Description:
- The protein is α/β, with parallel strands linked by helices.
- It contains 6 helices and 7 strands.
- Strands 2-3-4-1-5-7-6 form a 7-stranded mixed beta sheet, with helices on both faces.
- A hairpin with a 6-residue loop joins strand 3 (48-54) and strand 4 (61-67).
- It is globular and about 50 Å long.
Amino acid sequence: MAQDNWLVVGLGNPGAKYEATRHNVGQMALDVLAARIGASFGTHRSNARVAEGWLRPGGPKLILAKPNSFMNTSGGPVSSLVSYFGIDPGHLVVLHDELDIPFDTIKLKQGGGHGGHNGLRDIAKALGTPEFLRVRIGIGRPPGRQDPADYVLKPFASTERDALAVLLEDAADAVEQLADEGLLAAQQRFHGRDAK
């Protein structure tokens, strides 16, 4: 296994209907990352679209992947990518939407529970371990009594779009820093921003 290969998975649902929804924010951030490293997505035998590139010449290699499955069945494609590329769970980074974090906030962690997130639950089950890295992209709780299941499948409001662009850049920054300097350095940078 190449030591400095990182598998970065953006969670979401396939198809144009879901592309701009809150649930697909992980895949939106992956698009930002792909543009930065000059990589484009192509089909892969692991039931995912994959793009590969280097953070910089001689730097860590990033394998970016968007599962073609629905969010709740992300585990199959992720586990086949992990075995195909020979990735250790400590070098797997999953970008996903997070209801329990305010919109416009990024948090990073390794392992832990799934917090009701079915995509994470399925990945942990398929890998046999929850010890992968997560870039949690805050989408906030739904307003009023809106059902969270409906809320995550709605597009971002027009009032959120400017902040969303910055949020996606932040998520891409977080992945770069994780691959470059490790979890602690990335946490110190992003977790100190709560007073925003």
